[in-house]
Structure prediction request, 525 residues.
Amino acid sequence: MARLVVDNVSHRFGELDVLSDVSFELGANEILAIVGPSGCGKSTLLSIAGGLLAPAHGAVRIGDVPATSLNPLTFVFQDFALLPWRTVAGNVAFALEHTRLGQREIEAIVSDVLARTGLADFASALPKQLSGGMRQRVGLARALAVRPAILLMDEPLSALDSQTRDLLMEDLERLLEQGNMSVLYVTHNLDEAARLADRAIVFSRRPGRIRTISSAPVAREKRADPAHAEAIARWRADLWAMIRDEAQAADRETIDG
Amino acid sequence: MADGNARNRLAPVPFRGAGFAPGEHRLGGAAALVALVAIWQAISSFLGVSPLFLPSPIAIARALWRLIVEGDLLSQIGVSALRIAAGWSLGASIGLVVGLAMGLFTFARAAGFAIVSALFPIPKIALLPLMILWFGIGEPSKIATIALGVFFPTAISAASGVDSVPRNLIRMAQSFGLPFADIVRKVVLPGALPSILAGFRISTSIALLLVVSAEMVGAEKGIGAFVLQAGNLMQTDQLLAGVVVLSGLGLAVARAIAMLEKRFSSWR
Prediction:
């Protein structure tokens, strides 16, 4: 059953059409990657899906979500969006303080998610004292604290160097396996999409339209097996083949103004 | 790999990265002040400058000590400090509310910026006669003049402080479903605080400036009235002793604001 339904969504900023008639469904526990050339409206779509932006046309609907979820649609931001004046624990608690939970429950949740994300020893550190990878772990811990039904991840690893990205991707795989979560994962990095996603939506250049929705050839839990490496690499190559010309055209469009 | 002879022919790469990085010098500021006072003392002592035109630092220090021990300098300072406290608190609280509203709401922003831009450049002391007409010659007119002078920089700094809060933090808070008041309290206010404190730094200097001007125009007590009276009586050592007190007050207030900035902006 679909957890999130995006129905004929179009959007424009002033005269600029950014999304055109986008429809898809996100299943329960599914990781759906959204890939496409720069400026194709991926992040705009995520903002619309998360209720931060009202679409010019169309609608987004959410299905049944677990009653335990404190914030069914939860973002993980590209730039981490941490409050620089709050400690790591304070940033995680920030997402819970306005809920019905008492102080003790909040403290218990904060300490649990910090332990799960390897941040227990950094609870009282300020964001400026952390590396980029650790900051995004805080962003992830904050998102997990509210027990989301759907994680909306906007290029969560793109601000990190490649080694940190690999390490964090491993953590992400582990954390996503543990939780009963669906994920809408916007990325321009096809390696991330090929490694994490169950399906990938390929967008055209602006105004973003769905070119195709492609299913991964191998189930997520089997992808670590080297026997499937070739199939995954082929899928990645297929996705790139679909994006390449559009990305090139989008790049020229940017340069030409 | 270059052999020995070839290596000897290599020229060292010249260093071109010097300058453009002024650092801090622990004793530089104090040393400059001491040097200034020493030169002043030397000019007064050795060049025979009349004490009426330029009293020596030692004469000013003596006058200051005499005024503190025998005179009523401390009560004069107290009167001015009370006026500053009342005028600054009034102007800063109204300025803060208006500035935050300008940063948060479209109509307040449009109206606020138009009004502030039109009125901010007016020298506030020029409005003192009007304030005297409205509020009388007593304390309210002086307090109102100070409040008016403090209001504008506070409102502007609060509004630009709100503007400087990264939008992604507000969106993050919205994405977790925080109500408007919580976003203002937990995101906007702490984020705008460095700018608000920078505004306080300016507004306290303006308050000091205005209290002296207002007291010179119409007051019997206060540090401004004292300086004016000393000038009228040609007591230039006392006049400059009053100026030293004003400088000390300014430094003390700046120091207090710096401590607040350190306390509340340590995360930067």
Q: What stands out?
A: The helical segments of chain A are 42-49, 88-94, 103-116, 132-145, 162-178, 190-196, 229-256.
